[in-house]
């Protein structure tokens, strides 16, 4: 058994955990706060001299769908495995439904898990795979049989009960693995890159099905993924991770539109990036080759402060729309990428490289061919600006 938390986690601290920041607890406010389902508090994990997690804290509400998002090696799978008890943390605590599970073995925790490889038993039928964990007094034969039949309908495979995994498509195998994870009616569902082995069209369809099923069942769910689109399309909140630390916790819109660090701005979604310095009195940014760009929200910064600037391709204006904007720039088209409904136009403005997304049908009207000169405008309110020491 794990050791109990030494003190009640307060409302202020839980709110900070939800946003990725840790502050002092307020015991009185804790009684007024809705209790989260899962609390990870100051969790660290080391493998020898390598620190995979650095004092990570977060709180997940009942029924919430949360994605751990980040590049390979960022610690997202290590955090998932710590929650599952497969790799217990080196320090810190994990509490589920008010119960300290930090030191409990996996079999004593209340969760179901779907691995990237699905890990189905090839010698068992679909029905027997799903029923594998339905044992003991809580699951007499008739009840287990009913539960399997119910889950087969839930995941849309009622006709596949007697088939073996090798006879199913990848998408069907994923559904069987999901049904097996849900068989014991767990309070927590853990998904480790569950869709990464599928082709693009099946992934899009199944992630919609997964989200619909999760909402219908109301099970608290954590999904590990490196796919930004996948995380943003299914999650209530996203935990963006880098180098064993949480960079930001927020809704998909928050992490996309209001990133709190250069890493998040550069990793979540596509963006153009450049360095500049602040000309505070004029409300301008000055690039290394002397371009002057109007910006908002830089009043608090000192004159000459170096900054990193990010801008989304859908915010970069080109053509007639840009030409009527004061202080617009002149750019040269260096590449055009057709992406179906959209086209991505890459331009060079001095030494800046900017991408602009436009409807593909507008390419001709804009005259956006390689080598063409086009007006370019960066809306001041769309620039994401981060002070830097360099």
UniProtKB/TrEMBL annotation:
ABC transporter domain mapped to chain residues: 38-268
Name under which the protein is recorded: 2-aminoethylphosphonate ABC transporter ATP-binding protein
Superkingdom classification of source: Bacteria
Pfam families: ABC_tran, TOBE_2
NCBIfam families in the record: PhnT2
InterPro entries: AAA+_ATPase (IPR003593), ABC_SmlMolc_Importer (IPR050093), ABC_transporter-like_ATP-bd (IPR003439), ABC_transporter-like_CS (IPR017871), AminoethylPonate_ABC_PhnT2 (IPR017666), Mo/tungstate-bd_C_term_dom (IPR008995), P-loop_NTPase (IPR027417), Transp-assoc_OB_typ2 (IPR013611)
Keywords (A to Z) from UniProt: ATP-binding, Cell inner membrane, Cell membrane, Membrane, Nucleotide-binding, Translocase, Transport
PROSITE patterns documented for this protein: ABC_TRANSPORTER_1, ABC_TRANSPORTER_2
Single GO MF descriptor: ATP binding
């Amino acid at each position: 058994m794990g050791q109990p938390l030494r003190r009640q986690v307060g409302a202020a601290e839980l709110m900070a955990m939800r946003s990725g920041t840790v502050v002092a607890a307020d015991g009185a406010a804790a009684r007024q706060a809705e209790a989260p389902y899962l609390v990870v508090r100051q969790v660290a994990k080391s493998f020898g001299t390598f620190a995979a997690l650095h004092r990570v804290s977060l709180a997940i509400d009942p029924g919430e769908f949360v994605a751990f998002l980040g590049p390979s090696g960022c610690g997202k799978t290590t955090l998932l495995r710590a929650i599952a008890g497969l790799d217990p943390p080196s320090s810190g605590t994990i509490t589920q439904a008010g119960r300290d599970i930090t030191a409990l073995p996996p079999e004593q925790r209340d969760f179901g898990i779907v691995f990237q490889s699905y890990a189905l038993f090839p010698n068992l039928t679909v029905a027997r795979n799903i029923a594998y964990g339905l044992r003991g007094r809580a699951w007499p034969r008739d009840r287990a049989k009913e539960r399997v039949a119910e889950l087969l309908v839930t995941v849309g495979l009622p006709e596949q009960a007697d088939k073996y995994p090798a006879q199913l498509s990848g998408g069907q195998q994923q559904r069987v693995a999901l049904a097996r994870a849900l068989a014991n009616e767990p309070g927590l569902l853990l998904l480790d890159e569950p869709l990464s082995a599928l082709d693009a069209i099946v992934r899009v369809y199944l992630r919609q099905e997964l989200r619909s099923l999760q909402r219908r069942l109301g099970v608290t769910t954590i999904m590990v993924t490196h796919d930004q689109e996948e995380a943003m399309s299914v999650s209530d909140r996203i935990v963006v991770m880098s180098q064993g630390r949480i960079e930001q916790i927020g809704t998909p819109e928050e992490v996309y539109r209001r990133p709190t660090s250069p890493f998040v701005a550069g990793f979540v979604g596509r963006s153009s990036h450049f360095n500049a310095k602040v000309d505070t009195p004029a409300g301008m940014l000055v690039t290394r080759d002397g371009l002057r760009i109007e910006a908002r929200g830089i009043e608090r910064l000192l004159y000459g402060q170096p900054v990193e600037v990010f801008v989304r391709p859908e915010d970069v204006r080109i053509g007639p729309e840009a030409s009527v904007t004061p202080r617009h720039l002149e750019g040269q088209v260096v590449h055009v990428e057709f992406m179906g409904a959209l086209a991505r136009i890459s331009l060079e403005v001095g030494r800046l490289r900017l991408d602009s997304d436009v409807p593909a049908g507008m390419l001709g009207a804009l005259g956006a061919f390689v080598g063409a000169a086009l007006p370019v405008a960066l809306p001041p309110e769309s620039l994401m600006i981060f002070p830097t020491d360099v």
